[in-house]
Amino acid sequence: MSRTVRALLLVAAAAAATAQLPVTWKNWQYSAPIETGEVDAARYGSVTVPFAVTARASRDWTDLRVIDAAGHEVPYALSAALGGRTEERREARLLEPGVVAGQYSQALFDLGGDGRIHNSVAIRIDGQDDLLTWVEIAVSDDRRDWRVIRERAPIYRLAQSGLGDRTTVSYPDSIARFLRVRILDPSRPYRIVGGDVVHEVVTAAERVPANIALSPVPSDRGQSVWMAESPAVPISEVRFDTTQDAFYRPVSVETSDDGQRWSLAAAGEIFRTTEHGQPRASLAVDFPEQVSGRWRVTVHNRSDAPLAALTASFATTPRHVIFRQEPGQDYRLAYGNARASAPQYDLARSIDPALVSSAPAVSLGPAVENSGYANPAPWTEQHQVVLWLALGAAVLVLGVLAVRTLRG
Description:
about 400 residues; mainly beta; Jelly Rolls; about 15% helix; disordered N terminus
């Protein structure tokens, strides 16, 4: 390759790395072309916001803007399938709590004869001692013939370890009048003092790998620990993988701004077991979406050996920019303005949810830096070093004057 050709390629690469946005958008530092392709009629398109954009955009993506070739702002809706839960409580009267020595502790609940669906019970257990065990759930229409619908569901109460408690058990939808809860721990009796029975509807969240490195750190035998840094990407789930067949381990997820003080963000459990002859597993802990500078994930092994070949990874819920694409029009996604507030578009409130879910995906091209970028931050924020130097000089001058005054 000749020097001339190489030089031309370098010039082209430099030009591609920067491009000037219209002056209206001088305070936006970056942009990327939205590669919509050719369309014959107006339609809505969906752009998935990549991690590279999230890392440079303002928190909560408040500075995202869609602009057309003329520099006009194009309304959009920011969509995210965060998932969720709704609950409808069922009246549950406690019947016959008791213990079968050396086998189990149990209680029955009468849900009435209205035939309403139920699928979850939060078990209330007397006492403050830690526990970590399995529960069996059965239902009946007449208190004589029972059908086991959860053979081994995990529960725990680990308040002394700082993990709180997880004594809620879900099970397949049922309209049976009677519910039986058995704590399958023969080592000691448990006194069940109540239960909150509900019909829970869970909406699945969209999750993708967060591409954040969770690195294992040295820890004692009782724990397996990972740490990560993630100043920009919101996290909503931690996933695990292991070659071990049967286990049940509590999990804690913590966040920190300085790596010294930690706050519990989530607690859950992972397990593999067998129910009704079929394998059953839960290898993820989800929680409300959070952004934090530092993360710590701990699997609590207690007295057991660490799980075989255990790995951990984060997942996040992606954002999608939904906008109306016109035939023959080009669009860009601009971002990187820390002073921009979230836009208020009618589209975000008026668009049909069906259009959001069915909008065809369009891709985002390579990011470029705005060559005409003007930092919107005040001069004092942009030049804090100068201010500190000036302050230091002023203090020094005052000190000299004070010394002279005292001597005089």
